[in-house]
Design goal:
The protein has 12 helices and 14 strands. The chain is α+β, with helices and mostly antiparallel strands and 363 residues long.
């Protein structure tokens, strides 16, 4: 079982931070492929609307500069993407949604034997599929709001407000808050999109949104950041426009969640259960809704949390004494500390000049 740390584990945190910074000194010039591009609907939205200075990829690039890495943004929509990947020591993905966060990119990197930050194929696939993740939560005994799946046909309205969600993607893209039955068909059609995916219809639970970041540290211990309460001040829920904050209105407040011991214990138990049960690694963020009665329900699991300077993940990390660069160092360390690939696959060669690379970077 994973050993978990909290914000009170000060000596362990100091030791881990010292280890990371010592490791950094021996990794100057590490070649990092920063994978980012307008692949999914979520990433296309950020690419088109989010100011450059607010993007996670900008903050990650700045952190890599501070670390002393040599990095390049590799865009998966470009034809030379795969050929370029094999020339790097490690990949750090900032892709979200289908083809980036759902196991397909991770499978490609495994086959190419390029070390990468974050969860592997199976955990990424489970976390990215909201419906599948709900089913896993039920298996693990993790409380989540009541839900059903719509796959076309007559609409079964349960006479209560619901959240209608596409099964894939994040940042609330395609999500709708439905109070009235007359609005449900439109919301379902929008969430299904042109592909006609099944749609998650989730009971709307009144409460405070709470998020918990998790980060794997040297030695395999995982630190759980203090739970943060995130509340939209100018919208009914934490929708896509609020998350983008294009106009820098500050339409969402982020603060340490004021939780009763019972609710805090439930959240602590559930993040640990999901980390081990899904098989997450590297980093993750788990979102909850907490009611006035102290009941906590898991909404979703994010295997590639947003990493802008002001992101919930970065704010949580700062509360345990980790800088943005420390977080990126931890992600790189975890990727490069994994055992080397041991399957008999050839090193991909895309041209006669492609250099043969080792299966894993020497530690």
């Amino acid at each position: 079982m994973t050993h978990f740390l909290t914000s009170s584990s000060k000596s362990a945190m100091q030791e881990a931070t010292a280890t990371l910074r010592g490791w950094q000194r021996d990794r100057q010039g590490l070649k990092v492929a920063l994978v980012y591009g307008p692949v999914s609907a979520e990433d296309r939205l950020y690419h088109s609307k989010c100011p450059v200075e607010q993007r996670s990829v900008t903050a990650l690039g700045e952190a890599l500069d501070e670390i002393g890495a040599r990095w390049t943004v590799l865009d998966p929509t470009q034809p030379d993407f795969i050929a370029e990947l094999v020339s790097y020591d490690v990949a750090l993905s900032n892709l979200h949604g289908p083809y980036g966060e759902d196991g397909r990119l991770q499978g490609l990197l495994d086959y190419l034997r390029v070390p990468y930050c974050g969860s592997g194929v199976a955990a990424s696939a489970v976390a990215a599929d909201k419906i599948l993740c709900k089913r896993i939560m039920l298996t693990l005994g993790v409380p989540t709001p009541g839900w059903r799946v719509w796959s076309g046909g007559p609409v079964n309205w349960g006479s209560r407000a619901v959240m209608v969600k596409p099964p894939f993607g994040g940042s609330s893209v395609g999500m709708s808050f439905v109070r009235d039955a007359v609005d449900l068909p439109r919301a379902l059609t929008e969430a299904a999109g042109e592909s006609g995916h099944e749609v998650l219809v989730e009971d709307y639970v009144i409460g405070t949104p709470v998020t918990v970041g998790l980060l794997e540290l040297p030695g395999g211990a995982v630190v759980a950041f203090p739970p943060l309460a995130t509340e939209a001040t100018e919208a009914e829920y934490y929708d896509a426009d609020t998350k983008l904050d294009v106009d820098s209105k500050g339409a969402v407040t982020v603060r340490v969640a004021e939780l009763e011991p019972v609710a805090l214990n439930r959240i602590t138990r559930d993040v640990r259960t999901l980390w081990d049960g899904i098989g997450l690694r590297g980093s993750a963020r788990i979102d909850f809704i907490v009611t006035e009665d102290g009941d906590a329900y898991v909404l979703e699991v994010n295997s590639t949390p947003g990493m802008s300077r002001d992101s919930n993940f970065a704010v949580g990390a700062a509360m345990v004494g980790l800088t943005h660069s420390d977080v990126v160092l931890a992600m790189l360390h975890e990727a490069l500390a994994r055992p080397p690939y041991d399957v008999p696959l050839p090193t991909p060669v895309f041209s006669s000049t492609t250099a043969t690379r080792e299966a894993a970077v020497s530690l």
